[in-house]
């Protein structure tokens, strides 16, 4: 995907006619053509026109009869062909999971025995949900039923829409029950996080001496939002410790050659002004002011930059 350092995140009010549930076809609203995120859940259904989907750090086929299940805050893009056809459903977390008070950034960690309806959303980066014609016909019938209900809202409609949504998720989950359960047993969401953090590590290693290094850049390199990367880093002490150790090593190298100021000597002004780890880089600046920095000091709270 193209430049990811400034990826928008949309709320329901920006991309839906209602704030709980919204279903539409391609004609009702212009499709987004650049990578983006949502604060809400989304299901896209390909009714015709083979393409691909970019989801997190993966690129997967998205042909006719395919469905895409997108978690809140997950970077994604499905570039639909001009003559293609699709339908999508946007819905709030509270609409799908009224019984589950959970930070949306933690949804991929929820156990499936607690919320089995999350299964296709958790493993979309690892699996293609492509149905045969018979199963897809059932999906199309469900979509039309939900669409008609959404047009004629009345008392009880929300319950019927939720039932239709759960039926759709259940139909796909049953069709792909074996690979979904296999991925759950392999803790594939944890593997995905490790892969993302490896991309962050590689980016930081390659740009540790770059004065412009920011959390947004590191997040973009891993196809994550800055908020989500911050969330992951708070759970990943080893990576935070590596970044601090790497920063201290770079400080040692630059300071050892800067005992006498020169035109090429690094100075406090050369160091990042919007750092990923503000405490660490504050100590780096101190080195150029004659202060010592204790590399064993604890990592301070990570800032969104």
Outline of this structure?
The chain is an alpha+beta fold and 305 residues long.
What does this structure look like?
There is one protein chain. It is built from 11 helices and 10 strands. It is of the alpha+beta class. The strands form 3 sheets. It has a 5-stranded antiparallel sheet. A 3-stranded antiparallel sheet has the order 6-5-8, with no helix packed on it. The protein has a two-stranded parallel sheet with strand order 1-3. Helix 4 packs antiparallel against helix 5, helix 8 crosses helix 9 and helix 10 runs parallel beside helix 11. The longest helix is centred in the middle third of the chain and has 20 residues.
* Helix count from the secondary structure assignment: 11
**In sequence order, what are the helices and strands, one letter per element?**
EHEEEEEEEEHHEHHHHHHHH
Largest sheet: 5 strands, antiparallel
| General shape | globular
Sheet-strand content, in percent, reads: 5-15%
Could you state the oligomeric state of the chains shown? single chain
Low-confidence spans: 258-305
How far apart are the first and last residues' alpha carbons, in Å? Answer: 22 Å
Integer-rounded radius of gyration:
23 Å
The helix fraction, in percent, is: 40-55%
Q: Topology of this protein?
A:
Layout: E1 9-10, H1 12-15, E2 21-25, E3 37-38, E4 41-48, E5 51-55, E6 58-62, E7 66-70, E8 76-77, E9 85-91, H2 93-96, H3 119-122, E10 129-130, H4 133-151, H5 157-175, H6 177-185, H7 188-207, H8 215-221, H9 226-235, H10 237-256, H11 278-287
Parallel strand pairs: 1-3
Antiparallel strand pairs: 2-9, 4-7, 4-9, 5-6, 5-8, 7-10
